[in-house]
Amino acid sequence: MSVDIKIKNALKKFGDNVIIPDLSLTVKKGEFFTLLGPSGCGKTTLLRMIAGFNTIDGGDFYFDERRINDLNPAKRNIGMVFQSYAIFPHMTVRKNVEFGLTNKNLSKAEIRSRAEKFMDLMQISELADRMPTSLSGGQQQRVALARALCIEPDVLLMDEPLSNLDAKLRIEMRSVIKDIQQTVGITTIYVTHDQEEAMAISDRIAVMNKGVIQHIGTPKGIYQRPANTFVAAFIGRSNLLEGELVMKGDMPYVRFEQYEAPVPAVASEFRKPQKVIISARPEELSISREDNGGFKATIISSIFLGLNTHYFMRLENGMQMESVHESTLDSIIEPGTKVSVTFNTDKINLFTADGSTNILTGVQNDAQPSAVSRAGGKRLAVG
Questions:
Q1: How many CB atoms lie under 10 A from the CB of residue 11?
Q2: End-to-end alpha-carbon separation of the chain, Å?
Q3: Alpha-carbon distance values, 99 to 82, 138, 279, 313 (Å)
Q4: Domains and CATH numbers, the chain
Q5: Buried b / exposed e across 46-62, counting CB within 10 Å, b at 16+?
Q6: The 285-288 sheet, strands edge to edge
Q7: Count of beta carbons in the 10 Å neighbourhood of residue 16
Q8: Average pLDDT over every residue of 70-74
Q9: pLDDT tens-digit profile of 321-357?
Q10: Beta-carbon neighbour count of residue 168 at 10 Å?
Q11: Overall pTM surpassing 0.85 (yes/no)
């Protein structure tokens, strides 16, 4: 149970509308791989192409070395978990879990044994004789997952399975899903628009925009060294600023307004004077009431959240920024206070002026560069 998935030059159109223009990726055997992106980016369309629910207008799809383009969906040995649970209301939990086994020429004893195995795994054995109407949303999703796994599929596909749950249940269920996936070792493709959810459960993430994969990498790699400004702005929060790269001897410096700071991580091919876009996440900014050589800002407001305090600032050019700092016993900086702001230059990211390329070392991107270039680009925003 479990296969590699290879997609080469996938194309999907609805009439004259091209949803996925030319997409290639590889999902490793046993990997938890997440398709992440805004609504309408093509992630669910791609998932349905893998499942066989949408036609494939171009390209090749493989499970290991087996091409599945024209393979009947019922013969792809896929387990599917939907946003709406899709469990049968007229069947008990046990009958729902057993449903996928009824056409597999198994004995009643074997069907019951396998269903009990996955009900135990999902911790719903005590619910076996209950009807779905008496279950909570989290319990229904556990039933749906047990039913999908009970057929022992080669691939598990999950389409925003937690979006109908409340915040507390979502956090609980994403841990359950990750633990079960690791226990079973099944190749899993998971679709979500929730960045925190993707970061919490994935081995690797593919960030999509307009049918094009922008960045494929680990959660840590994507967050710390995003491939372009779209990824930087979509994953977490980021202040995007127009600045300059200047050279002082062999050392590159980033310049924003009157503030300059060395950035030794600039890749050798980009070490030349140029316009850049600076991506500074809220936790990558330091603020001081004293003039420490940084650029000037005025505190607009603050939000105290216990461990951290979020400050919202307005720069002299009118732009707004957000900064996050560990809360202290001292008083919170009051609105209207003038502050000096500096970058943590070990953590900020710098991009070419069009936003398409991160110019620092350490960027790990498994997406094809030619595809990314078509939909990256400049996306200046704050937060």
A1: 16
A2: 42
A3: 16, 20, 50, 57
A4: 5-224 (3.40.50.300), 229-364 (2.40.50.140)
A5: bbbbbbbebebeebebb
A6: 285-288, 338-343, 295-304, 308-315, 320-326
A7: 5
A8: 94
A9: 999 999 988 889 999 999 999 999 999 999 999 999 9
A10: 9
A11: yes
